[in-house]
Write a structure and sequence with these properties.
The protein is of the alpha/beta class. The chain has a domain of 219 residues: Alanine racemase (TIM Barrel, Alpha-Beta Barrel), CATH 3.20.20.10. Belongs to the DSD1 family.
Length: 368
């Protein structure tokens, strides 16, 4: 089942399987975990669970020895807090109601190692005030803008920002976090040059801050696209997430990684509406659709099927005439998403496949 492409997907008991369904292959997940641990040392791996969002999949990581995690939502943080021993970084700004709820999680779990990001002095001040009300010390990472322009403090403003927030005695600055998902050079060598040019600037600032602080600070940097580069720095924690399930988008854009496809969509032909056209029950409610229609999914056994229209519940494709004649309504089709993370969030559960059959159901517990 390695790579899940050269041979067809085979599930024997599909008469009880609704379409579309999200399938997961635990053996492939475990192989992907073993592979990442050949690339990143265990104590420097902080997987992002925004991809998997499921207790059984988190447990597979824990079984492999992983204890550090990253997440993007309070629900994902709550899911991780079900294990008392984990080191959890909420890598998302907490503002407004979410700031209050983050504080409440700390109150409810006083022994937990739960941290968040800061990149705004006023918000950091409010977090400090809320923590003071409850007698808490909140561990925080300063978010660094590595050029993506989404969140984070600009590198040339980090020292000034650090000086301002270190005065908040109910905040403990643990270190720095940075994500550079905008870096998409396909060649690893070219990608490395882009990352290093920015990271070297950060390291110069980090050195000055650490000298002033008289201590080392933790660095959590990168994602699926850049972790192979940051893994070469022994002090950096890497936080890829997609490696567990993998998807076609990263298969194309990150050819050096070669993880197996552990999450697959099961769908059926529901109509043959006109000559050379078929319709699958795979609308944009069933697969991530932020990309152009030709870059939303890959159909391994039917690479010459051309998508021409997608709506909420339907996907219409043009197929070669010779194939179309032999296709029956009800034909089962297996599809690899281009972007697995938002695709997972569309489903309430995974259907777990083992020994060519559906063996159980795993809840996707933190979908929003």
């Amino acid at each position: 089942m390695d790579m899940m492409m050269q041979s067809p997907y085979v599930i024997k008991n599909t008469d009880q399987l609704a379409s579309p369904s999200l399938l997961v292959f635990p053996e492939v997940v475990q192989a992907n975990i073993a592979k990442i641990l050949t690339k990143v040392k265990l104590d420097k791996l902080r997987p992002h669970i925004k991809t998997i969002k499921s207790k059984p999949l988190i447990q597979l990581l824990i079984d492999a020895g992983v204890r550090k995690f990253k997440c993007a939502t309070l629900k994902e943080a709550s899911l991780l807090l079900e294990w008392e021993e984990l080191d959890i970084l909420l890598a998302y700004p907490v503002v407004g109601y979410q700031l209050d709820q983050f504080i409440q999680l700390l109150v409810k779990h006083p022994q937990a190692k739960l941290q968040c990001l800061i990149d705004d002095v006023a918000t950091a001040s409010l977090l400090h005030e809320k923590a003071a009300q409850y007698g808490l010390s909140v561990s925080v990472f300063i978010d660094v803008n590595l050029g993506m322009g989404r969140t984070g403090v600009a590198i040339d403003q980090l020292e000034e920002f650090y000086e301002e927030v270190k005065a908040f005695d109910h905040l403990e600055i643990i270190g720095f976090h940075g994500y550079d998902g905008h870096i998409r050079e396909i060649d690893l060598g070219e990608r490395t040059k882009v990352v290093k040019a920015v990271f070297d600037r950060f390291l110069a600032v980090l050195k000055r801050i650490e000298e002033q602080a008289h201590r080392k600070l933790t660095c959590v940097f990168g994602g699926s696209n850049t972790f192979p580069i940051y893994s070469q720095y022994p002090f950096v924690e890497c936080s890829p997430g997609t490696f567990m399930l993998w998807d076609w988008g990263y298969h194309i854009s990150l050819p050096e990684q070669n993880f197996g496809f552990a999450a697959v969509l099961f769908t059926r032909i529901i109509s043959k509406p006109s000559l050379n056209h078929v319709c699958l029950d795979l609308g944009y409610k069933a697969v991530a659709s932020e990309n152009p229609i030709a870059q939303r999914f890959h159909i391994p056994k039917h690479e010459n099927w051309r998508p021409i229209m997608q709506s909420e519940e339907h996907l219409v494709l043009e197929v070669p005439a010779a194939e179309w004649e032999n296709l029956a309504v009800g034909t089962e089709v297996y599809v690899i998403p281009y972007h697995i993370c938002p695709t997972v969030a569309m489903y309430p559960f995974y259907r777990v496949v083992a020994e060519e059959g559906i063996r159980s159901t795993w809840e996707i517990a933190a979908r929003y």
